[in-house]
Amino acid sequence: MSSSNLSLRMYRAVESVRRFLWLALLGLLWHHPVYAQSPAVNLSTDVGLDQRLGEQVPLDVTFRDEAGRTVTLGDYLGDRPVVLGLVYYRCPMLCNQVLNGMLKVLRVVKYDVGKEFDVVLVSIDPRETPDVAAAKKESYVRSYSRPGAEEGWHFLTGDEAAIQRVAQAVGYRYVYDPETDLYAHPAGIMVLTPEGKLGQYFYGIEYFQRDLTLALTESSDNRIGTLVDQIILYCFAYDPTSGKYGLLIMRVIRVLGVGTVLLLASYIVVMSLRDRRRAAARALGSTNLKGGKA
What we know:
The chain is α+β, with helices and mostly antiparallel strands and 294 residues long. Among the domains are: 1-32; 43-207, Glutaredoxin. The chain contains nine helices and 13 strands. Strand 8 (175-177) and strand 9 form a beta hairpin. Helix 7 (209-219) packs across helix 8.
């Protein structure tokens, strides 16, 4: 066997092992909550994302936006739903995966950031500045590439007290590890109603178009979305344990039953009208025939 063939086989073997390990890692991320881990952190007690469905986020808490302006969380609420994420912009690993997962699903969701809903990201690191936030925003808005997104996508920074108020309100538990200068934190995003109440939670770094679309439709109190969206939303219900929407079979049966009745009623009406037209045509033909014999 030539040395070139041997090298090629070794390369293919290494690639196979690499792909297997990568797929195995993806499988673990898919089925389990994802955390930025630190040896000094007890993940079971210090880090987590506890659902606070229906609870109000603090609207008066003060931050700075990416331009350095003083804003409150309530400035971004009142008109439309908000996708809320807690991250930090210099995070070397997990936060980028959360942001990339968010960007990926937002690209395929039919609603537009800045039009039907807004995105608000809050840095959990009080040392981060508006300049860091601005650079992050520029990168993601450019990648999202939809008109008006810069008006609806907000990257905030603030002091420790402000960050803690929001984190505690949404059930976001995280901890700073001074040994590594990193934060151990959960991965996930939330959807707020226009009033600022917690509607849905989505865990991990991979989010699904159907689930986010339904969450935005539901959180908007059906003010966005088509009739088809409303029907789909009726047939699905949010499952807090999984952070996803599940099919409600009884509702599906009701919808199909109503649809069947409507189809039958339509068929009966159409057939009745057709029979009447045929009877009228026969009557008219008989009259013409009698008139011709006379």
